[in-house]
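Q: Got a minute? One more chain.
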Amino acid sequence: MNPFSYTQPKDIDGVLARLANGARPIAGGTNLLDLMKEGVYGTPSGGMTPLELVDINAIATAGLDRIEESGKGLRLGALARNADTAYHPLVRERYPLLSSAILAGASPQLRNMATNGGNLLQRTRCVYFYDVGVPCNKREPGTGCPAKHGINRQHAILGTSEHCIATHPSDMCVALRALDAVVHVRARDGGREIPFGEFHRLPGDRPELDSTLQPGELITHIALPDAARFVDHSAYIKVRERLSYAFALVSVAAALDLDGDAIRGARIALGGVAHKPWRVEEAERELEGKQAGEAAFTQAAERILEGARGWGQNDFKLPLAKNAIVQALMSATRGTAYARGEKE
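A: Always. Here it is, folded:
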């Protein structure tokens, strides 16, 4: 048992002061507590075992748990629970893609506990990362990546490096990437906005760094821009090894803006294939002006997967990802209600 202190500041300034002093925030704790129990903390890049946990739930009254309109978009408080977000009337009406993605993740019990901010910061579920008895560059830089020649069925096929082939586990984040969300953060010296595509990192030579969030910064909310043109044609497809409580082998968030059968705009993001939600915007632009259908979608899938490679056990992800992209886009073409099983 590693001793640590527990504090619960009553305002955001108090939280930011503790974070600036090296404390770690806790809200739902659905991933943080696992990391502590498994001993992942206490390693060089796993992070020092927290000497202080700062419970940030008390500052929800500052608006961090609200889901509310912001112009033509939506503001998702970092302390809003995943379940409340998925079922919120404004989310279901304006961002059905996000609602579907959240409900595809974890279990009802975890969604009731997990927060929006925490979902962005969950760490990989790579078995080597969690096993402190084996090497892992993400946990201890320079020790190696046994996943490359070991158990890698769940691992990345895109954006990998010689140092790490782990994947980001979130479903919610895949939809947020497709929707061009923006992450708002605060620290003692001010705040900043981070486009969602820049929030998570590819492993490169620093696989221990999952995001561009800086020490002392706290996620306050996630901003969603107007996505009205994609409401009627969206789909979230998640391929996994069992029906519930399983991470994606491959997932696809797809949304289309259609004029009849003509594609005016497209959004396609993948999960389960990289260290961050994967999106190739050039492939989306190449769909514009084409007729919605299997031929165009297959070309888009091939463009998105350029450079993909398997590591042995996960070679099956190459055709699986291609087929999932096409399936998601075909479902989106038929309509959001069809994709959600609300219409035959």
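A: The longest strand covers residues 250-259.
Q: Perfect, thanks.
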